[in-house]
Amino acid sequence: MYLILVSILSILYIVYLIIKKEKNLPPGPTDYSIPIFGHLFSLGKHPQETLLKWCQNRQSDIIHCYFGQKLVIVLNNYDLIKQAFLDDNYSARAQPFIFE
Questions:
Q1: Which Pfam family would be a valid example here (predicted)?
Q2: Quick one: which of 77, 73, 82 has its CA closest to 27?
Q3: I need a labelling partner for 33 at 20 to 30 A (CA). Which of 18, 55, 58, 84 fits?
Q4: d(Cα 4, Cα 33) in Å, to the nearest integer?
């Protein structure tokens, strides 16, 4: 009896993790990610090329994806990257030499 209850609750939790939507996020590669693993299995052997294709498919320079359970925001534009690194929110960090 308890095994059936635990199984049903586990399945419902996994379904919830798959279909939940985050608000105020840039577009992602797909509408769902695998719980615990995220989009890691979708990256393939050349993750940088896969991330670039995801940006092109969504026609956006900013996308989100999950590496495991960690949310990652991917920037695919020099100006956006520079703005993110030089923003006051990152002022506790030394300025990268590449932008000097």
A1: p450
A2: 73
A3: 84
A4: 26
